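To assess whether the prediction recovers the assembly geometry, we first specified each molecular entity separately, as shown.
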Amino acid sequence: MTCGSVLLSVRGLRKEYPLRGGLLGRGRGLVRAVRGVSFAVEEGSALGLVGESGAGKSTIGRTLLRLEEPTEGEILFRGRDLSRLSMRELRPLRREMQIVFQDPFGSLNPRIPVGRAIREVLEVHRIVRGRAAREEAGNLLEVVGLKRADGERYPHEFSAGQRQRICIARALSLSPRFIVADEPVSALDMSNQAQIVNLLLALQEKLGLSYLLITHNLAVVRQIAGRLAVLYLGKIVEEGPTPDVFRAPLHPYTEALLAASPSRDPRARGRALLLSGEIPSSLRIPSGCPFHPRCPRAGEKCRAEIPREIAPGPSRRVSCHIHDGGTGPPLERRQGQAPRGPIPS
Amino acid sequence: MGKESLLEVEDLRVCFASDGETARVVDEVSLAVRESEVLGLVGESGCGKSVTALSILRLIPEPPGRIAGGSIRFRGRDLLRLSESEMRKIRGNAISMVFQEPMTSLNPVLTCGFQVEEAFRRHRRLRGAAAREAAVEALHLVGIPDPEARAAEYPHRLSGGMRQRVLLAIALGCRPALLIADEPTTALDVTIQAQILRVLLDLKEQLGMSVLLITHDLGVVAEAADRVAVMYAGEIVEEGDVVSVLERPRHPYTRALLRAAPRADGAPETLRPIEGSVPDPRDHPSGCRFHPRCPIAEERCKEAHPPLAGSVRCFLAEGEGS
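The predicted structure of the complete assembly is given in tokenized form:
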């Protein structure tokens, strides 16, 4: 699937949101949503970005398209740094990168027929107008497995899965090379999920698209993405080829995510390793390794030192003391209580 | 097996009037939930799972909905014959329900504690400190850390997982005999989903209750259900114990669901989605309702409506029930 050449390369991406409020609107803190993230997407390939809600996945997706301004870092798309371009310079490049969102209900205007919603994109970007635009919108609907005549219908007349197809058709209207798919199947039931997954794969094959697939669903990632990056509190904690990461996860967080995904085997019930607690607020990032308050294998070193990123194998990387000289003596935990929230540093 | 049924739904029919037409959303559904078991009810969106669940508590909006026939016997009493005030004594008490949306099921202007207390005020006539104490205990029961502090907080301060726990505390406060859980983990991250399922199953053991678990996720079924009923186009098409149904599915629809669903365990496979979509309940296909999407349908499947025979509704069912 990979063709080798890098389409998108992100280096040291940061996104912070100052919290204002209180007396005289003074800063009350800083939400560090993305804390120095680097990755690359190769031409014609898909990178899966996984993690729990609050990890910063969607912020990264939106920042790539400059729907959010990055605080720091480079976003190189075909060699040009998007973060430095003016909005005018950005516009032609925007055609080449599109986004599909989770919610196919909220992404379509309920008052206009779906064919017109697609046509408008073509007209705004001055690709084609009038009759030709109508023709092209019909073609796009066919590409995603709907009928030309469906263009006359309104969003409420479609099922959730069909609406997601329409959103994909609209994203395809500008012939993009790169699509950010932000939880594209999470609002759908299983059989619709399969249809959309297969559609994304077929489009990749046919049009040579590249994807950044953002999801918390590991079962979906492994169907689509050749590489997988695991995000925790705004940092990539592990990255590698998807089959390798599934076979042998290196970071305890990846291990926990895999173990938490429900198994289809009722005989294997109850074997899931439960991850205790919840992801802390990005307002108060825990000291040392940010995962240490929830990590079953954390030691003293994990509380004190931020693990560096190491490359334990070809095209793999991980940030964890276990793979870098050990974790030190185990952390003392209060028995019977799930570690919860950040430990004050 | 051989346990007594706590809930027996028989030939339940629920219709909705829409634009002068009648939609048969639930059509002669029969199912039983036994003492201290988890029955999983699965199917695609629009199959009638949630309407079945809401009918049991008589929460169908009438009109446009109407329970057109059948019986719902809970501990031998037909719920469809009870008055509204008798029903109110059962809801949230002997039978309670949790929904998918932890974000919208709680009232944003009342504290979590107050909302948990409500069940005790209504069903146990507890007041003041006694109600507060009971609420804190319920929050503790569902694994909310520091329940006293959390009771004083408003829902927006809590994460989705914590809100779902609060909803469970409300539902389980009065120790129901039956919990109806409608996609209780669908909106949550996998890690939190695993935690909530564990809490649910632990409490089921601890309180000896039965659960009707509605989900489209076969992974959740494998993880939690003892028996499974598969629903399609308003009908039960297959039922059985969880291992038989997931390992030796007999109805083509069940087999198709299993092939379609992406899974995180086992070897990766190409997904085979079920083509087409669930039929409009105003206009069910003739014969077997699944025939237009069925890969093995024959001529007779278009004409005759298959009965639920030996726990599967298909003329061409593979294998015998075990």
